[in-house]
Amino acid sequence: MEFRDNKAIYLQIAEYVCEHILLEKWKAEEKLPSVRELAVELEVNPNTVMRTYELLQNKSIINNKRGIGFFVSDDAIEHVKSYRKALFMDDELPVVFRNIYLLNIGFDELKSKYETFVKENFNA
């Protein structure tokens, strides 16, 4: 995983974990890699991974089974979508809207580009 400078590493790791859950690489009730395992895999400090897991636990995306480890919660996908949607709406969408306004891009053009994107990337 390559980290970007514009966002805290623990938040980028949270995106990584959330993406794995959304793609169902890690399914409901499945055990996550331990804090140390993920830290070694991502080449970060274990405290950083612990901070990520605490954030995701607070968002009800993962659960800590004391002495066993962290697990994906039953309704993790819904919680991930809610969490990621809020981040997108608050952080990314204003930038997109600004660019749409500055570049004078019409909604018809956006709709066409969006439909093409979905067709090429998700309608296999």
Automatic annotation (TrEMBL):
Xref: PROSITE patterns: HTH_GNTR
Q: Which UniProt keywords apply?
A: DNA-binding, Transcription, Transcription regulation
What molecular functions are annotated in GO for this chain?
DNA binding; DNA-binding transcription factor activity
Does Zinc-finger count among this protein's keywords? no
Q: Respond yes or no to whether keyword tRNA processing is given for this record.
A: no
Which SMART domains does the UniProt entry name for this protein? HTH_GNTR
Give residue ranges for domain HTH gntR-type: 7-75
Q: What CDD domains does this protein's entry cite?
A: WHTH_GntR
Q: Which InterPro entries match?
A: Tscrpt_reg_HTH_GntR, WH-like_DNA-bd_sf, WH_DNA-bd_sf
Recorded protein name is GntR family transcriptional regulator
